[in-house]
Design a protein that fits this description.
Elements: E1 35-37, E2 41-44, E3 52-56, E4 59-61, H1 68-78, H2 81-95, H3 99-107, E5 117-121, E6 137-142, H4 145-154, E7 160-164, E8 179-183, H5 192-202, E9 208-214, H6 223-227, H7 230-240, H8 244-253, H9 259-266, E10 268-275, E11 280-286
Parallel strand pairs: 4-7, 5-6, 5-8, 6-7, 8-9
Antiparallel strand pairs: 1-2, 2-3, 3-4, 9-11, 10-11
Helix pairs in contact: 1-8, 7-8
The chain binds S-adenosylmethionine and zinc ion.
S-adenosylmethionine is lined by residues 70, 73-74, 77, 122-124, 127, 141-144, 147, 166-168, 183-185, 188-190.
């Protein structure tokens, strides 16, 4: 977590988020105490804690340095590899009937309630945020400064508050959100189960938690794996598809995670469905 100091995030645009004087669902990520607004951001009320969370260009910075797998993910999504990989993401959407249709398979699992308070974990560039009802109040969290800045640009005017931070340590009080969503990042979180426990903790009891991503072992279907040459697939993914060596290694290391089992351990009435013609999954359930 950030304790004052000079900003090192690369967010440069004018803010569209709305971190006002009201801390809303926020709590101190260190001591879990209450926060209050200052000119620079939010400070912890608890005596002796001393945590200060800056708001930079409209984004609340809870953690701007990461380690391990989250650093690999942040470095990838902050790099020039991501826009190059984007071509393949678009190709994937086209193969599944278009982006809107593919994403709607997930988004329609959210309740339609007016004024819903949604947490989007790993919101990325918020490609679908503007499709959500205008009267929803949305908090989006992501580990990448570049993605968060892009999300601001794409969603001016929405009631959207953005946080630079990690899914495994959500800076919110228990039982605050009407629904929690996470698309496209879950497989590669440093600790997906800890992240899901956090999502369930901050959701109101019974609130839906909706998670989706590609199947973790998608590369098993590639031609090299089938012919016994997984190294060929690794080259394709890393170089041709531009995931880069570090992120490709991360994808490979996480390919055996059992998403359905994680859902069963954490959520009530947990369900797991394969979507996108076998390319992805939807795991959902209700917060205990
Ligand atoms: C493929 S993008 C998906 C973005 C968006 N949800 C979408 O569907 O377009 C994955 C996102 O997960 C974020 N991410 C990866 N690990 C994370 C973590 N541990 N905590 C928060 N965000 C994370 C990345 O920075 C990236 O923006
Ligand atoms: Zn504190």
């Amino acid at each position: 977590m950030v304790k004052g100091g000079p900003p090192n995030a690369t967010i440069t645009r004018e803010p569209s988020g709305a971190w006002t004087a009201d801390p809303g669902p926020l709590r101190c990520p260190r001591c879990h105490g209450a926060l209050h607004r200052t000119d620079a951001g939010f400070d912890c009320d608890a005596e002796g804690c001393g945590t200060s969370l800056p708001v930079r260009d409209g984004v609340l910075v809870v953690r701007d340095t990461t380690t391990g797998d989250n650093k690999i993910a942040a470095d990838f999504y902050n790099s020039k590899l991501w826009p190059k990989f984007r071509f393949w993401e678009r190709f994937f959407w086209v193969c599944n009937g278009g982006e809107r249709r593919s994403r709607d398979v997930i988004l329609r699992r959210l309740p339609k309630s007016p004024g819903l308070c949604l947490l989007d974990v790993a919101i990325g560039d918020g490609a679908y945020t503007s499709w959500l009802p205008e009267d929803w109040s949305i908090v989006g969290l992501d580990v990448s400064t570049v993605q968060i800045a892009s999300c601001q640009r794409h969603n001016p005017g929405h009631d959207l508050r953005l946080i630079l931070g990690e899914a495994e340590e959500l800076p919110f009080r228990d039982r605050e959100f009407d629904a929690v969503l996470s698309i496209g990042g879950f497989n590669h979180f440093k600790d997906p189960e800890v992240a899901l426990r956090e999502m369930a903790r901050v959701a109101k009891p019974g609130a839906p938690v909706v998670v989706s991503d590609e199947l973790p072992d998608l590369t098993d279907r590639m031609i090299g794996h089938r012919l016994g040459f997984p190294g060929f697939d690794r080259w394709v993914v890393s170089k041709l598809m531009h995931l880069g060596d570090d992120f490709t290694d991360l994808v490979e290391r996480h390919r055996h995670i059992d998403i359905a089992e994680i859902g069963r351990r954490v959520l009530n009435d947990s369900r797991y469905e394969v979507i996108w013609h076998g390319g992805g999954y939807l795991m959902l359930g209700n917060a205990p």
